[in-house]
Amino acid sequence: MAGFTPLASLGSGAGFGGSGFGGKGLDLPALGSGGGGAVAELTGPQKVAIIVRLLLSEGAELPLTRLPDHLQAEITQEIGRMRSVNRATLEAVVQEFVDRVESIGLSFPGGLDGALSLLDGHLSPATSSRLRRMAGASGNSDPWERIAGLEADRLLPVLEEESTEIGAVLLSKLAVSKAADLLGRLPGDKARRIAYAVSLTGNVDPGTVRRIGLSLASQLDAQPAKAFDTGPVERVGAILNYAAATTRDEVLTGLDEVDAGFAEQVRRAIFTFTNIPVRIDARDIPKVIRNVDQAVLVTALAGARDTDLAAAEFILANMSQRMAASLRDEMANLGKVKDKDAEAAMATVVTAIREMEAAGEIFLVAGDED
């Protein structure tokens, strides 16, 4: 029975005998004389109390906090009123409970908040945001479950804007790893003040914590849905990664004239063949060349000109001497490479690197901030 925790059956209100939670508890030293007749004497709440007591005695973890407060209270009160049941009654109650659970064909999460969690990723951002505001307004859901599931990037702006006291409560309700991540992103002075404020949250009552959670959840859900998953710097950088070199240079020159700061951020986001020496760890070069067709790699290396020459030499210098000598021979036999063919080959090498980065096989070194 240790793993048998069908919470929905415990919170059905009518119990599983149909008597409901309104029945009186039998204030007797022992309940029932055995068999089905004994079960008939029990109310629905008493049967639920027996199942809860049995599961807890077997070491099961029952998430009773997911039940409404009044049901948690009634289960607790019923357990407090009861004394003992004999083995025959216990077995009959368990069998009735198991029969009822096994007859269930499909269960639903219960409540709008549960439905939103189930459909997460399947609804449009606008619809999801609107429904979450409705769920928060209903007052039945736990706002902290929603907040704790959000990414740190989404929570950081709220933490930066809110007061020290609210920030302390927010960090206290998050997983330790996520709280540490957020604290590390804050300016030193604010991080210290919030860390100290956490030590003062011991006497905050649950009602206040819930109201804070509802307010924060409302703020987060009120944020407009984003049409793009990435920021403008990343999008422009990704486009220019695949643009021809002349086009890329012209666009960056134009951005310098309009917004030099934005242009510099885009330059840092761009990754081209030229950037290989400063963005790729020398130890990852063997991995890269294994993912690029050798004929394409020879074309890219042989076609390197001007600023790309350093990247070609970096690649050759970080592989085995035997392979480097073989590639140099092939480069010499290939002769002069057309600029168009060289650029296409370099783009293929860059694409392979990007795919390896996305798969977590390699990591790009952060660009120079200076």
TrEMBL record:
This is Flagellar motor switch protein FliG. Residues 41-144 form the Flagellar motor switch protein FliG N-terminal domain. FliG is one of three proteins (FliG, FliN, FliM) that forms the rotor-mounted switch complex (C ring), located at the base of the basal body. This complex interacts with the CheY and CheZ chemotaxis proteins, in addition to contacting components of the motor that determine the direction of flagellar rotation. One of its GO terms (cellular component) is bacterial-type flagellum basal body. Keywords: Bacterial flagellum, Cell membrane, Cell projection, Chemotaxis, Cilium, Flagellar rotation, Flagellum, Membrane. Belongs to the FliG family. InterPro entries: Flg_Motor_Flig (IPR000090), Flg_Motor_Flig_C (IPR023087), FliG_a-hlx (IPR011002), FliG_M (IPR032779), FliG_N (IPR028263). GO terms for biological process: bacterial-type flagellum-dependent cell motility; chemotaxis. Residues 254-364 form the Flagellar motor switch protein FliG C-terminal domain. GO terms for molecular function: cytoskeletal motor activity. It is a peripheral membrane protein. Residues 153-225 form the Flagellar motor switch protein FliG middle domain. It is found in: Bacterial flagellum basal body; Cell membrane.
